[in-house]
Amino acid sequence: KFTRDEIRRSMLLYAISDRTWLKEGESLADVCRRVLDSGATFLQIREKDLEPGRFAQEAEELRQLCQRRNVPFVVNDSVEIALSCGSDGVHVGQSDLRGRDIRALIGPDRILGISAGTVAEAKAAQEAGADYIGVGAVFGTSTKKDARNLTVEALRDIVRAVSIPVVAIGGINAGNIAQLKGSNVDGVAVISAIFGAEDPGAATSQLLALAKDMVAAH
Ligand code: TZP
Ligand code: MG
């Protein structure tokens, strides 16, 4: 179990797996190991097109990698897989099961992350028992086609409206992360700028340094 403080600090560089970026001969666990060893502070497995058996298997591998490093690990969408692999929790969007129902299923000790795009959604997520919210898309992204764009001001309004940690998501990369200075977010969640990088480990170290610089400027 992670404390509230640990969860907040773990938002700094929140990596989200995406196997569609894997290069020939690489496994998801190989790349995630490099990403974790390069300083990612949180890991979510998000695999939209994997059959449940494979998804569970990969989740189990990543759970072990994270547990050895004391890095929080959550599963996107599937409460069932989140529980069966012994993960630290689950992350869900607005259209998935209701937050309150998920909290009841996972119990008080596991992490519940909920995506939110507005102040109202953020407050509702906190009310439903979320431990943190993911807010975005802050920049344009091709990873999630239906994502909206948010301004830094909108982000700041959302952060102000809740007491739980907030991680920004959507199109964030080394070139634009500094634009989040002053948004008061606790960190950044990143898919393609890590998993789509030529060298995911190097991209992770670079983003970690920039994320520290970004939150230090709030
Ligand atoms: N939710 C809002 S934007 C997004 C998700 C899952 C995609 C983020 O991916 P990337 O590649 O970091 O833009
Ligand atoms: Mg979802």
UniProtKB/TrEMBL annotation:
GO terms for cellular component: cytoplasm. 2-[(2R,5Z)-2-carboxy-4-methylthiazol-5(2H)-ylidene]ethyl phosphate binds at residues 141-143, 171, 191-192. NCBIfam families: thiE (TIGR00693). 4-amino-2-methyl-5-(diphosphooxymethyl)pyrimidine binds at residues 44-48, 76, 115, 144. This is Thiamine-phosphate synthase. Its EC number is 2.5.1.3. Pathway: Cofactor biosynthesis; thiamine diphosphate biosynthesis; thiamine phosphate from 4-amino-2-methyl-5-diphosphomethylpyrimidine and 4-methyl-5-(2-phosphoethyl)-thiazole: step 1/1. PANTHER family: THIAMINE-PHOSPHATE PYROPHOSPHORYLASE, THIAMINE-PHOSPHATE SYNTHASE. Condenses 4-methyl-5-(beta-hydroxyethyl)thiazole monophosphate (THZ-P) and 2-methyl-4-amino-5-hydroxymethyl pyrimidine pyrophosphate (HMP-PP) to form thiamine monophosphate (TMP).
